TrEMBL record:
Residues 1-20 form the signal peptide. The active site is at D31 (proton acceptor), E196 (proton donor). The keyword Iron does not apply. The lineage of its organism: Bacteria, Pseudomonadati, Pseudomonadota, Alphaproteobacteria, Sphingomonadales. It comes from the Bacteria. This is Beta-xylosidase. One of its GO terms (molecular function) is hydrolase activity, hydrolyzing O-glycosyl compounds. The record marks D146 as: Important for catalytic activity, responsible for pKa modulation of the active site Glu and correct orientation of both the proton donor and substrate. It comes from Sphingomonas aerophila. Belongs to the glycosyl hydrolase 43 family. GO terms for biological process: xylan catabolic process. Pfam families: Glyco_hydro_43. InterPro entries: Glyco_hydro_43, Glyco_hydro_beta-prop_sf, Glycosyl_Hydrlase_43_Enz. The keyword Electron transport does not apply.
Length: 307
C-alpha cells in the first residue's frame, strides 16, 4: 500500500462476521499484518512513515502499544535524500529459526526505486536490526512493495511474495535458510485483477493466494483470492472476499491468521468508514478483524462488513 495516507488510521475490532458489532478504535495504522506469539495476538500496521511499531492483546479486546520495532533513521541505506523523503510501510513479521524477521517496504518509487528491507528481531515486540542492505530493489516495470514471507509447512520452502501498484506485477522469490537473502526467483502465472497487498496461507492442504485490487484510496479497493495445490500455483481464481458495502469503503491490504486457542481463522484488514462517495479518500483508515468461514469445498465465504 502507498504511504500517502498512513498518518492517522485506527484499529476497529469485530467479533464475528454477519452479526459483528463495532468496538472502539484502538490505534492508528493501516496495512495490518498479524501473528500469534507468546500467548498474544500481535498486529503490525503501517504507522507514521518514519517507523514501524507493534501492538498486542491477550484477549483481542484490550490492546497494548508495544513500541517501535525499527525507525527509518536506523536503516542507513533508506535514509532521506535531497530529492524525496522516504517512508517505511506494509510490514510483515515472521517467526522462524527461533527468532523473528521483519520485512518492510521502503519508498516511494520515484525518483529512487522502491525497495524491500529485512531486519532480525529479538522478539515479537522487537527491537529489530536491519540487515544493512536492501533485500529486493524494484525497477523495469516492477515495484518492490508489500512483502509477505510464507514457509510452506509441507515442503519447508521459504517464499517471498512482493509487488504491485506501478506495473501491478506479482513476483515470488525463494529465500535462503538465513531468511535475509534471496536464492532465486520462482516463475509464476499472474493472478487476475492483481494490484498489490498479496498474502498466502495454507489450510488443509489448500493454498490460498489473496490480494488487493483497485485504487487504494477509492471505493473500488477490494480483496480477491485464488486456490491452488501448491504455494506457487497454478491459481484457480475464486472471486472477492471483501468489497465496499454501505458506509464501509475500500477494504484491503489484509492478512490471515489462525487463533491457536479457538482454531478459528481471522482476516485482518483496513477500510474507510462513514463514506457516501467513491473517493478518493484522504482521512483515516481503520483496521478491522473478522472471522473467516470456509465452505465444504474449502472456498472462502465472502465477508459481510456490518455494524
Amino acid at each position: 500500500m502507498k504511504p500517502v495516507a498512513v498518518l492517522a488510521a485506527a484499529l476497529l475490532l469485530l467479533a464475528g462476521n454477519a452479526a459483528a458489532k463495532d468496538t472502539p478504535s484502538i490505534f492508528a495504522g493501516a496495512d495490518p499484518d498479524a501473528i500469534f506469539a507468546d500467548g498474544r495476538m500481535w498486529i503490525y500496521p503501517t504507522g507514521r512513515g518514519d517507523r514501524l511499531e507493534s501492538w498486542s492483546s491477550a484477549d483481542r479486546a484490550h490492546w497494548q502499544d508495544r513500541g517501535d520495532l525499527i525507525r527509518l533513521k536506523d536503516v542507513r541505506w533508506a535514509r532521506d535524500d535531497h530529492a524525496r523523503r522516504h517512508f517505511l510501510w506494509a510490514p510483515d513479521m515472521l517467526a522462524a529459526n527461533g527468532r523473528y524477521y521483519l520485512y518492510y517496504s521502503v519508498g516511494p518509487q520515484d525518483p529512487t526505486p522502491s525497495r524491500l528491507g529485512v531486519a532480525t528481531c529479538t522478539g515479537p515486540a522487537g527491537p529489530c536490526t536491519d540487515s544493512g542492505k536492501p533485500l529486493l530493489t524494484g525497477g523495469n516495470g516492477f515495484e518492490a512493495i508489500d512483502p509477505m514471507v510464507f514457509i510452506d509447512p509441507h515442503s519447508g520452502r521459504r517464499l517471498l511474495y512482493a509487488g504491485g501498484s506501478a506495473g501491478s506485477r506479482l513476483r515470488v522469490f525463494e529465500l535462503n535458510a538465513d531468511l535475509t537473502t534471496i536464492a532465486g526467483e520462482v516463475a509464476i502465472n499472474q493472478p487476475p485483477l492483481f494490484t498489490e497487498g498479496v498474502f498466502m496461507h495454507e489450510r488443509g492442504g489448500i493454498y490460498y493466494l489473496s490480494w488487493s485490487h483497485g485504487h487504494w484510496n477509492r471505493a473500488d479497493y477490494s480483496v480477491h483470492y485464488a486456490m491452488a495445490t501448491s504455494p506457487t500455483g497454478p491459481w484457480k481464481y475464486r472471486g472477492e472476499i471483501l468489497s465496499s458495502q454501505g458506509r464501509y469503503k475500500g477494504p484491503g491490504h489484509h492478512s490471515f491468521v489462525q487463533d491457536p486457542k479457538t482454531g478459528e481463522w481471522l482476516i485482518v484488514y483496513h477500510r474507510w468508514e462513514k463514506k457516501a462517495d467513491d473517493g478518493p479518500y484522504t482521512d483515516d483508515r481503520r483496521v478491522a478483524i473478522q472471522t473467516i468461514t470456509y465452505d465444504k469445498l474449502g472456498q472462502i465465504e465472502p465477508v459481510r462488513m456490518t455494524d
